[in-house]
Design goal:
The complex is a heterodimer of chains A (387) and B (583). With 387 residues, chain A is mainly α. Chain A has 14 helices and three strands. In chain A, α3 runs parallel beside α13. In chain B, α13 packs parallel to α15. With 583 residues, chain B is an alpha+beta fold. In chain B, strands 1, 2, 3, 4 and 5 form a five-stranded mixed beta sheet that branches. Chain B has a five-stranded antiparallel beta sheet with strand order 7-6-18-17-16, with helices on both faces. The N and C termini of chain B lie far apart (129 Å). Classes of the chains: A mainly alpha (387), B alpha+beta (583).
């Protein structure tokens, strides 16, 4: 062998070698590209944000984003090497830790922008709700699968219980956005696990009732809906600016660092980073961004579809739904297709918790979709025959 | 038994928990069974595929939405032409110096929702824009939306505010007419409104060509010569201030082409801010005010006398006695009590003499001359300000006598200028213009005086400066000629001898052929008070002639009039007006 075309030879049986040959390249590639773009975009938005806050170092946020991306990559790598069993274990402990810290939030958390969501850990402020999402999805998928084995595990009840506890803690904060994400992902997992069709109508009714309840209970939810439905005479400032920026970007954008909107509106390096990117790099770039998320989500679901184990199928699909829906909601808000919802764009928006949790989410998703003996044996019916 | 009662009793509680347990298990089993039933629609693969399709559609929608958002706006991005263009072409003087131009200014907007630090905005804006109203700023900061705070920011002002980097502060371009010279030639240039409509002066006169093609045409060149204009304004303002006048007028024209080289009206205003000016300042007295000119008019009477053929320069007139006509007695201001030649009637400014000339010419003929010389209708000039004269309802002998020395008829300074041009340019009635004439442009005008009369008038006017009341208008080597005038204004129904309109109508040089370069200068002081410089006098020879002389002395080099050695004075200084009061 004179030239080595790959970092790892096929015969490499080391842990990393096995990982490399079993992990899906498309998913890995899309994830890596998104992380890289996130760091790159933060170099554009960071100086504007630091200047406002009064931080001397203009690339403060960019450097932190780079650090978060590296940490997320490490988490992603190590988690994706786990076996499905290991994934369940990690999900369980993380869920416990996240729920405990969410319970402690009212006492030790610090508040920002009208909600108590953060825990200060040294230089990092972590948002437990970010980590609770993937772990909950894995746990409920596991429970659904256990029920279906018919071994007397009341999985559905446990899953609903876990979900209810999590949502309850989120609504206390209050964090409507994360509740919504979790509800959709939970519903999707439940659906994919095989909810009888008769139940779906009831579940949809419950979801509508829940949303209406949130509309009645939380002022900011109500105002955002009203604003979206009747933009005249109300403050549609952020979305107007976003539309302005996207329009100004046009096909090719104003050029890197040339965007002007980022200087005007707070939060643009987080929730509205898509608009900043569209202004500076244009439509071509935004389509690339959307395509990357599409590749990640669709390819992920395709891989999940082909898995054998019901738990792996549903958990992997649920995790990709989590990533996909968050990306879709963020972009749709930026394009003013749905009401404003503070939601980060996975890997792209600035934020440590979001980035690390995304590393965890995709780490688990990659771990579940890795090739392994029996993992992808064709039709499940045949596989069942061996069981 | 109701459910509540059941729950209250221990047995009921157990029953309820059993009931719940069984329900839960029913659900669990249903879920399990559903899976085990192995229907195709319940297969996880198909379900996941449904979710996959759903996301596929979602991403497709987003891609379409992103495309629409990016392209819809980029179309509207090109240069946005305002619905109604306010753009105007530039105005320049005859040598190309800019007098009026459109400059991009900026309106400053504040959006309270974008403001990070209200205190910073207050400090920054009040420091860099002192004219900004604090109350307005406070209102804007509290408004909660984007509001226009202040307009007309110069590029410098905008740069200053921009450099502060205030969040929530934005600019929008707005065209604004700028007059870089400020008050210089303000009445001639005029001004326009925000919507790009000329309101006065050349801006109004040339409104259509200035606006044509969205103002992209080249600059319109005015007849104005900025050098002459600044000299005229400087001297006029100095004299006006010294004499504490109510108003003052200065005009300089090329007598052959009718071009107005300079035109000043005092007090003046800054066209960049016409709103701050009083009506007195805005009034263009040269074109829009009428005055009984007084003796300046005697030039016309003498010219009429010569032109009619009834009199020659050596005709004599008895001025020993006051002249009775109708119910009126005409006296001379400084009675010479002697018989005067025509020349002397002019130089000594004899009311008796001009009355006799006018009567000699005859009512009909005299009024016809007045009409021919444009004294009975507004001056022919592009300025809409050009006002109608106040003329006698009918020409009786009395009004004829009054008109002969500039009473009974009120004309604008521009009318006087126009008529005087004809008197000294060889006799052609050339309309005035504020537009520069082309080098090859042929100036036509009706012959309203014979060249011989014109020639004679040049000589007679020169005499008035060398030997008569206009001595103070002389300028070394420039052969200045002219006529003083002191019109008495009507106060409480009668002519006042202290409230005057004092003027000097000058022409230079008076020698050389009729078609040689020649310029007319008019200086008029409305209600001058006596000053030290005028020895307490208010008459034209004392208050207007000196200013005219100074103006001529300074503008001659610009106009290419060369100085010649003055002949040694033939008359004794005693004959000069220094001794008496020029009238």
């Amino acid at each position: 062998m004179t030239a080595q075309p790959h970092a790892f030879a096929r015969t490499d049986r080391s842990k990393l070698g096995v990982w490399w040959w079993t992990t899906d390249r498309w998913l890995l590639g899309a994830t890596a590209a998104l992380m890289f773009l996130g760091v790159m975009l933060s170099f554009a938005s960071s100086p504007a944000a630091t200047a406002r806050i009064g931080i001397d170092q203009p690339f403060h946020f960019a450097m932190r984003q780079g650090f978060y991306a590296a940490a997320a990559a490490v988490i992603l790598l190590s988690v994706s090497m786990l076996s499905p069993k290991g994934v369940r274990r990690v999900a369980f402990f993380i869920w416990i830790a996240a729920v405990l810290s969410m319970m402690a939030l009212p006492f030790i958390g610090h508040a920002a922008k009208g909600a108590t969501r953060w825990i200060q850990l040294g230089p990092l402020s972590l948002q437990p709700s970010e980590f609770v999402k993937p772990s909950l999805i894995v746990l409920v998928s596991w429970m659904f699968a256990e029920t279906q084995k018919g071994e007397g595990v009341p999985g559905v009840s446990i899953a609903v219980g876990l979900y209810a506890l999590t949502i309850g803690l989120l609504l206390i904060q209050p964090d409507i956005g994360q509740s919504l994400l979790i509800t959709v992902a939970f519903g999707a997992a439940f659906f994919m696990a095989g909810v009888p069709f008769g139940w779906i109508a009831g579940m949809a009714g419950l979801a509508v009732a829940g949303m209406f309840g949130a509309y009645l209970t939380f002022d900011h939810v109500r105002s955002r809906f009203t604003r979206f439905l009747s933009p005249e005479g109300s403050d549609t400032h952020q979305v107007d600016r976003a539309a302005e920026a996207i329009g100004a970007g046009g096909l090719l954008g104003r050029g890197p660092g040339e965007g002007v909107m980022k200087r005007h509106v707070p939060d643009l390096h987080t929730d509205f980073i898509y608009s900043v990117a569209a202004e500076e790099y244009g439509l071509i770039f935004s389509l690339l961004l959307i395509s990357l998320f599409a590749v990640l989500t669709l390819r992920g679901l395709l891989k999940a579809m082909k898995l054998t184990e019901p738990f792996e199928q549903v958990a992997a699909a649920g995790l990709f739904v989590l990533v996909g829906q968050q990306a879709c909601i963020n972009v749709a808000v930026n394009l003013n297709l749905i009401p404003t919802k503070g939601m980060t764009l996975p890997f792209i928006s600035y934020g440590g918790s979001s980035m690390l949790a995304m590393g965890l989410t995709l780490g688990m998703a990659l771990a579940l979709t890795r090739k392994r003996p029996g993992g992808y044996s064709a039709p499940r019916r045949d596989a069942d025959a061996f069981a | 038994m109701t459910t509540a009662d059941l729950l209250r009793s221990p047995g009921g509680l157990r029953w309820a928990s059993e009931r719940l347990k069984s329900r839960i298990w029913a659900v669990e089993r249903a879920f399990e069974r559903n899976k085990a039933a192995d229907h195709a629609v319940d297969d996880a693969r198909i379900r996941i595929f449904v979710v996959l399709l759903f996301f596929g559609l979602l991403f497709l929608t987003l891609a379409l939405g992103a495309t629409r958002a990016a392209l819809r706006h980029s179309e509207a991005q090109g240069p946005v032409a305002p619905l109604v263009s306010s753009a105007r072409a530039e105005l320049a003087d005859r040598h190309g110096s800019l007098l009026a131009l459109d400059l991009m200014h900026h309106g400053l907007y504040i959006d309270a929702r974008e403001v990070w630090d209200g205190e910073e905005i207050r400090r920054g804006l009040t420091q860099s824009l002192p004219r900004l109203s604090k109350a307005r700023l406070e209102r804007a900061l509290k408004s909660g939306r984007r509001v226009h705070l202040i307009g007309g920011l110069t590029p410098q002002e905008r740069a200053k505010v921009h450099a502060l980097g205030l969040a929530g502060v934005s600019f929008e371009p707005e065209e604004r007419r700028v007059y870089p010279l400020g008050a210089t030639a303000a009445h001639l240039i005029g001004f326009s409104d925000r919507g790009g409509q000329g309101l006065s002066g050349a801006e109004r006169a040339f409104n259509a060509p200035l606006r044509a093609d969205g103002g992209i045409g080249g600059p319109i060149e005015l007849s104005l010569d900025l050098r002459v204009q600044s000299v005229l304004e400087e001297e006029l303002t100095a004299a006006a201030a010294d004499l504490r006048v109510k108003g003052a007028v200065g005009v300089v024209t090329d007598v052959h082409t009718g071009e107005i080289l300079a035109m000043a009206s005092y007090p003046d205003f800054d066209p960049n801010n016409p709103g701050a000016a009083t009506p007195e300042q805005l009034l263009n007295r040269a074109a829009g005010s009428v005055y009984e000119m007084g003796s300046t008019f005697k030039g016309f009477t003498v010219a009429a006398g010569l032109e009619s053929g009834k009199f020659t320069r050596s005709s004599t007139f008895d001025a020993t006695q006051p002249f009775r006509i109708g119910g009126r007695v005409v006296r001379d201001f400084h009675a010479s009590n002697q018989v005067l030649t025509l020349d002397e009637v002019f130089t000594k400014s004899s009311n008796i003499g001009t009355s006799r000339i006018a009567l000699g010419v005859g009512t009909q003929r005299f009024s016809q001359y007045m009409g021919d010389w444009g004294l009975l209708e507004p001056a022919k000039v592009e300025l809409v300000e050009s006002a109608r004269p106040i003329k006698p309802a009918k020409w009786s002998e009395t009004t004829l006598a009054s008109a002969s020395f500039g009473h009974a008829i009120s004309v604008t300074p521009l009318q006087l200028t126009q008529a005087m041009n004809a008197v000294v340019n060889g006799g052609r009635m050339v309309p005035l213009t504020i537009r520069k004439r082309g080098p090859r442009e042929r100036v036509t005008g009706r012959q309203v005086l014979s060249p011989a009369t014109s020639q004679a008038m040049l000589e007679i006017m020169r005499l008035n400066v060398t030997d008569g009341s206009g001595g103070k208008a002389d300028a070394p080597g420039l052969r200045v000629g002219g006529k003083t005038g002191t019109g008495e204004k009507v106060v409480d129904g009668r002519y006042s001898d202290t409230v005057n309109v004092s003027s000097f109508a000058a022409v230079f040089p008076t020698d050389g052929p009729l078609d040689a370069k020649r310029y007319f200068v008019l200086i008029l002081m409305d209600e001058p008070k006596g000053s030290q410089a005028s020895m307490g006098q208010r008459t034209g020879g004392w208050v207007a002639a000196p200013a005219a002389g100074r103006v001529i002395n300074r503008i001659a080099p610009f106009l290419g009039v060369t100085r010649k050695a003055d002949p040694a004075p033939e008359t004794t200084p005693a004959a000069k007006p220094a001794t008496g009061s020029p009238r």
